[in-house]
Specification:
Elements (H helix, E strand, L loop, with lengths): L3 E2 L18 E14 L2 E12 L6 E8 L4 E8 L5 E6 L2 E4 L2 E4 L2 E9 L6 E2 L15 E10 L2 E10 L2 E9 L6 E7 L3 E6 L8 E7 L9 E6 L6 E7 L10 E4 L4 E2 L4 E8 L5 E8 L7 E4 L10 H4 L7 E9 L2 E8 L3 E7 L1 H5 L4
Antiparallel strand pairs: 1-26, 2-3, 3-9, 4-5, 6-7, 7-8, 9-10, 11-12, 12-13, 13-14, 15-16, 16-17, 17-18, 19-21, 20-21, 21-22, 22-23, 24-25, 25-26
Length: about 350
């Protein structure tokens, strides 16, 4: 067994998280970033919530009005001819434009043992900017020197981008703005400068030509990025034949940068796998997974808001183990334990 799922899984359920307002309900607490601060494991959860008063015969999208700072509700009846598609419970299309049925913010959870978490009662970062009107999603935390860099998906009617936050104390957060334009997501920063440059794994989303896979980019300041190159692309006939994307902050080992990434197949089954990158030039792949490190098996991974998904945004090293925190079924947060040796064993 390559990973050990904890008996306490899922360690965070939507019902464990208080909504940001009384008339809302939390439908997902998942895809957490992870880091260690003062011997405490800290997660930044993606918390998805929606209004309680939605009727069964309508679609409802909560949308931030950046001018007032208030969430407004766009409602439309199911029989409205302008509804062009309802692919699943997460979204609907009105006049061929996508709307989300929930809005997400970022929330902090804290633990001393890595399993039992105390969740902050209020959001850490809430939608505020014009590029965040549909919500904040899927953060990753990278500590570089004494500053924590948090990449996160920002969603609006203008598209899905990647934004950057920085913090020293997880109380005050500074927005650095959009660092990758639509649609470039799953951005993960390396935990140190390499060759005097910042490095990032990215995931451009081509619409017409080209696969959806992991690219690499570099920057002089972590804000302005260039030298984009494809790196870990989907492989035909394998578990990652559909899409690939960066998941966890790369772990520095003697053998290279060890990256846990996510890969989906053509049926949208999401697994976790690993790739080893050159220490001095992360644009070079040394070895790549011959098999998944982890795939959906437990009931909370197979069934949920969007089933058949294990999707990680963060892992930490603790007591000679690697704790992988992951979203299960786009609804729950769970954790699994493995080792560097076991991860390396999946490579070829």
């Amino acid at each position: 067994m390559l990973v050990e799922r904890f008996a306490e899984n899922p360690i965070i359920n939507p019902c464990d998280v208080p909504p940001s307002r009384d008339d809302y309900e939390v439908v997902g607490a998942f895809n957490p970033a992870a880091t260690i601060v003062d011997d405490e494991i800290l997660l930044i959860l993606r918390v998805a919530e929606r209004p309680k008063d939605k009727d069964s015969n309508e679609q409802l999208a909560p949308i931030l009005n950046p001018g007032t700072g208030q969430i407004e509700h766009f409602r439309v009846k199911n029989n409205d001819p302008n509804i062009t598609d309802i692919p699943d419970s997460r979204s609907f299309y009105y006049k061929d434009e996508m709307f989300l049925t929930s809005i997400s913010h970022l929330r902090i959870a804290r633990s001393t043992d890595g399993i039992h978490f105390k969740i902050d009662p209020t959001p850490a970062v809430f939608p505020k900017m014009p590029y965040e009107t549909f919500g904040l999603e899927d953060p990753r935390i990278t500590k570089i020197d004494d500053l924590y860099h948090i990449t996160y998906k920002v969603v609006s009617d203008k598209g899905i981008c990647t934004g950057l936050l920085t913090t020293e104390d997880f109380v005050h957060f500074e927005r650095k703005g959009i660092i990758f334009c639509p649609e470039n997501i799953d951005v993960v920063l390396f935990p140190e400068r390499i060759g005097e440059k910042y490095w990032a794994l990215t995931r451009p989303v081509p619409r017409y030509i080209g696969p959806r896979g992991v690219w690499v980019a570099s920057s002089p300041d972590a804000v302005h990025w260039g030298q984009h190159q494809p790196l870990v692309l989907p492989r035909e006939g394998m578990f990652d034949s559909g899409k690939t994307g960066g998941s966890c902050v790369p772990i520095k080992t003697d053998d290279g940068w060890l990256e846990i990434y996510h890969g989906s197949d053509t049926d949208d089954k999401y697994c976790l796998a690993a790739v080893l990158l050159d220490l001095n030039d992360p644009s070079k792949v040394i070895a790549r997974a011959k098999m998944p490190l982890m795939e959906p098996e437990a009931s909370y991974e197979l069934q949920g808001f969007y089933g058949n998904v294990v999707f990680s945004c963060g892992a930490v090293e603790k007591d000679d183990s690697v704790l992988i925190y992951y979203g299960a079924s786009d609804e729950f947060t769970a954790v699994a334990k493995t080792t560097i040796k076991d991860i390396l064993s999946t490579l070829r």
